[in-house]
Write a structure and sequence with these properties.
Layout: H1 3-18, H2 21-29, H3 34-55, H4 63-87, H5 97-100, H6 103-115, H7 121-141, H8 147-174, H9 176-198, H10 208-236, H11 238-242, H12 248-260, H13 266-284
Helix pairs in contact: 1-10, 2-10, 3-4, 3-9, 3-10, 4-8, 4-9, 6-8, 7-13, 8-9, 8-10, 9-10
Main location: membrane
Membrane topology: Multi-pass membrane protein
Family: Belongs to the EamA transporter family.
Length: 287
């Protein structure tokens, strides 16, 4: 299997894992404070990451890597989880699809700024078209609009794109799973302290779905998903593989149809096919 194909497969696995993040976060913030949810998931993932690094005896990153790791931690360990958790108190997870549709474009832009990639002009056409299709579809579907929620989601997309691109750039020398693990470990002392500070006085009113959601975003969204995602970005290119995020909302629809018996319309299928074609076009002109 060539490097490019492997990158797209790893990236696709990462996207499938990430597709459950916003619904799980939505369930969790119904009973857990969004700040506590953010720092608790980072602390849990950080402890697991520390165990992995120690078990595989990974060499410590150099001083030159610390700033980049801090950027990754700011973008994907703290920024995106906190901003989306706050936003989902004001908007529905369906409405947030509008902004997830912009994440591939944000990742591609930071891939150019931070990763030194230079996609062909046609790439940007397919990327913008795919983003417009996802955002347009989500807007047609409707959802509770909130200026505060929309502003928080837009900020989340910007910092997430930065974290994705910076992590992929650093993965070229440090390794994919090592980057997210070191970023989590770097922020671990602060996350543990904040978890204790924002811990609720009692957990008696927290039901099982909220605990399961916390477990999912801690283990899969915060750690396992990034192992595949960063590997995919390095192998296939930040801008190119980043376009797979356009499929993330539709994986969510598939999960809803399978697990919750929600209807999947012909419009959903048509837009999905169109987005897949945009991803294929972006892949062709990415380099």
């Amino acid at each position: 299997m060539d490097r490019m194909a492997s990158g797209w497969i790893n990236g696709l696995i990462g996207v499938v894992i990430f597709s459950g993040s916003l619904p799980a976060t939505r369930v969790a913030v119904m009973q857990l404070d969004p700040v506590f949810l953010t720092v608790a998931r980072a602390a849990i993932a950080g402890l697991l990451a520390l165990c992995l690094l120690l078990a595989f005896r990974q060499k410590r990153p150099s001083r030159n890597d610390i700033v980049s790791l801090a950027v990754v931690a700011f973008g994907v360990v703290l920024g995106f989880p906190l901003l989306t958790a706050l936003a989902l108190q004001h908007v529905t997870s369906a409405h947030s699809i509008v902004f997830i549709g912009l994440l591939p474009l944000s990742t591609a832009i930071f891939g150019v700024l931070r990763g030194g990639e230079r996609p062909k002009p046609a790439f940007w056409i397919f990327s913008a078209l795919g983003s417009a299709l996802v955002a347009g579809f989500a807007l047609v579907q409707g959802g509770a609009a909130s200026p505060v929620g929309d502003g928080l989601m837009l900020a989340a997309i910007i910092v997430c794109g930065l974290g994705y691109a910076e992590g992929a750039r650093l993965s070229r020398t440090l390794g994919g799973w090592q980057v997210i693990c070191w970023a989590l470990v770097l922020s671990l002392p602060v996350m543990i302290a904040l978890s204790i500070t924002f811990m609720p006085a009692t957990f008696s009113n927290v039901a099982l779905p909220a605990w399961l959601s916390l477990a999912y975003v801690s283990l899969f969204s915060m750690l396992i998903g990034f192992i595949f995602w960063y590997r995919g970005l390095v192998q296939g290119g930040i801008a190119a593989v980043g376009q797979l995020q356009l499929l993330q909302p539709f994986f969510g629809l598939a999960l809803a149809a399978t697990l919750l018996d929600e209807p999947v319309t012909w419009a959903m299928l048509a837009v999905t096919v169109a987005v897949i074609l945009c991803v294929a076009g972006a892949r062709k002109f990415a380099r």
